[in-house]
Specification:
Layout lengths: L2 H6 L2 H4 L15 H10 L1 H22 L4 E9 L20 H11 L2 H11 L16 H17 L7 H19 E5 L5 E8 L2 H58 L5 H40 L5 H72 L7 E5 L12 H26 L6 H8 L3 E6 L6 H10 L4 H14 L9 E6 L6 H13 L5 E5 L19 H6 L4 H4 L1 E2 L6 E3 L8 H5 L2 H13 L2 E5 L8 H6 L4 E7 L5 H12 L7 E7 L1 H6 L1 H4 L19
Parallel strand pairs: 5-12, 6-10, 6-11, 7-9, 7-10, 11-12
Antiparallel strand pairs: 1-3, 1-4, 2-3, 8-9
Helix pairs in contact: 3-12, 4-12, 6-8, 6-9, 9-11, 10-11, 14-16, 15-16
Amino acid sequence: MNTVDMISQKPSQVTQARQGPEDAGDTIDLSSLLGALWRGKFIIAAFMIATTLLAGFYAYAVAVPKFTSTAVVVLNSREEQVVDIESVVGGLGGGSEIIATEVEVLRSRSLLGKVVDRLDLMSDPEFNRSLVPPSTMDSLKQLIRSFFGASGGSGASSTPELQARRQREGTISQLLGSLNIRVVPQSLVFQIIVETTDPRKSALIADTIAELYIRDQLDAKFSATEQATSWLSSRVADLQIQLEEAEEKVKLFRANTDLVSTEALQGLEVQLKEIRDRIANVVAARDTAETRLAEMQAAADDGTESPDAEQARLRLQLDVTRMNDQVASLESLRTQLENQIDQQSSDLIELQQLTRESEANRLLYEYFLSRLKETSVQQGIQQADSRVLSEAVIPGGPSAPNKPLIMAAGMFVGLLLGMGLVLWREAARDTFRSAGDLERISGRPAMGQIPLIPTRKRKDAITYLRQKPTSAVAEAIRNLRTSVLLSNIDNPPKLIMVTSSLPGEGKTTVSIALAQNTASMGRKTLLIEGDVRRRIFGEYFDVPEKKGLGSVLFESRSLAESVVQVPDHDFDVLLGDKGQANPADLLSSNKFAALLQEARETYDQIVIDTPPVLVVPDARIVAQLADVVLFVVRWDKTLKAQVMAGLHEFDGVNRGVDGLVLNQINQRKMRSYGRTYGSYGAYGGYGAYGSKYYNN
C-alpha cells in the first residue's frame, strides 16, 4: 500500500487492528458534548441573533396583523314548553354526538354561504382572492394554464356563471379558514372564533354566524311544523270521510234489519232450552206409556184381558198418540227457534263489526284532529335549540402575529441550527485533541505534549525557550526529554530522530528545543539538519554560510570542521547543504552511518531533524540508525488518517515509532474541551499566551 492510499483511508480502517475491545462500542460523553457546545458558543449566538432578527423582521414588517373576535352560543338542553302538548320537533339532547353534529353545522358550507351573501364577502379582497392583483408567479401559472387550456380545454370552463360559482366557493373556503369552532370542555357552550385583518369585521362575522345558525334552527322547525300541519290536514280529511262512510253503513244495516240485541238473543236461547226440556220430558213419558201399552197389548192377545183393562189400554193408547203429536209440535217449535237464533246471531255479529269499524275510525279521526290542532298552535311558539350567550366584542388589539412568540421561536430555531452546526463540525473533525486519543488510536505511547509557543518568528521560538526556562513550553520540552531518556534505562538512547507525517507540524522546533534542553543538562549535544531538501535551520540561527552534512560525506571534511557553534546556545549544529547526490541516497550511504557512529563517540546526545515521512523516504532510512524515533503530531490539525499512514510507513520497514509528541497545543482552547481534553499532564493549568502564534 502506498502513501497516498494510506492517507485516503478512513481512520477506522487504518486503526482497526490497533483498537482495543473497549473501542467496539460508541459512548456519549455528556461533558464532551457540553464542552463542544461551549466552544461553539459564538457560532450559536450568531445563528440565534440572525434568526431572531429575521423573525423580528417578519413579525414587525412582513406579517399582516390579525384580529380575533369570539361569539358564544349555548345549546339548550332543557325543553321549555309554553303549553303542555307534545312537540312536533323535539329539543336537542346533550350527548357528544349531538355536540359534534352542531359543530359541523356551524362549519357547514351552506351556513357559511348565507354569511357570505349576507355580508357581501364576495366584494372583500381578504376572502375573494380573485380581487387581489395577481403576482408574477400567479401570472406565470395563469399563462401556463391558458396555454394548455387553449390546446385541449373546452370553452365552457370559462363561462361567467362558472367563474362566479368558483369565486363564491373560494370565498366560502377562505371564510372557513378564518373560522374556528371551540367547544368549552364539560359544557354545551360553543365559541365561534373569527380571525380577520379588521377588528370590526371579525366581530360582525362572528355575530352573523351565530345569528344565522339560530335562525337556521328556527327555519328548520317551522318547515317541519308546516309540513306536519299540511300532512295532518290531508289525513284528517280522509279519516273524516272514512268515518262518515262507516256510520252510514251502521245506519243502513239497522234500518234494513229487525231489531236485534244481545238481550233478545239471550231470551230466545232461554225459550229454546225450555222447549228442549219439555221435549225431553214428553219423550220420556211417551216411552213409559208405550212400554205399558205393549204389556197390556200382550195380555189382550192372550185372552186374559178384563174389560177394565181393555178400557185402560184404550185410554193409554190415546195418551201415546197425544204425546207423539205433542213431541212433533215441540220439535217444530224448536226448529223455528234455532233458525231464529242463528239469524239474529249473524245479524248481531255484523252489526258489532260495523260498529267497531265506525268507532275505530272515530278514535283515529279524533286523534289526528287533536294533533292537527296542536301542530297549528306550535307554529307560533317554536323556539331554537340554541341561544346567544355572549355577542362578539370588537378586539382592542391584534391577536396575531404573536410577536414575542415569533421572536422566541426564531431564537430557538437559531439555537437548534447553531447547535446542529457546532455538533456537525465536532463530529466531522478528524484530528487529535488529547494524548489519550492519540495513544488509543495509534497504539504508541505519547512521550510529550507541548503547548503552542507564543512567538511569531522561528528565531523567536528558540529565544523564548532560552529566556523562559520555567515556562509551560519549557517544562513540556523538559518532560519530553525525561520521557525519552528514561524510555530505556539500561541503554539510554543517544541518537534521537524527530519526524512527522506532513510539513508544518512543528518537528523542527521540537528538535531544536530538545537539543537545547539536553545541552542545558551539561551534555554535549549535536543537532543535525537531516531535512537537506528544505534546510530551514538558517531561519532559527544567525550563522554564516558553511559547509555541512554533504561536505562531510563527499568532500572528506571532518565532523569537527563542519559543525557550527550557535551563539548563545550550548549545542553544535550540523547544517544540511546542497549536494549533487539524492538526499535519500545520501542518508542511506555507509558514509552517513559512519558519520553517525563518529558523532556517537564525540557527543553525549544527538538529535536529527528529518523530513516528513509521507513526503519523502528520508525519515524511514534514518530511523534504521536511530535509538529513538519521535513522531510529532500537530494538535487539532493533523488528520488521524495521516498519522496512521505515517506510522504505517515506519511499520513497513520494520522500524516502528517509539513515541509520539502532541505538539502546538492551544491551551486556551484546550481548557474549553473540559475534562476529556483539558488535562494534559502538569501543563493544563498554565494560561494562554495571546491570540497570534508561530506555527511551524
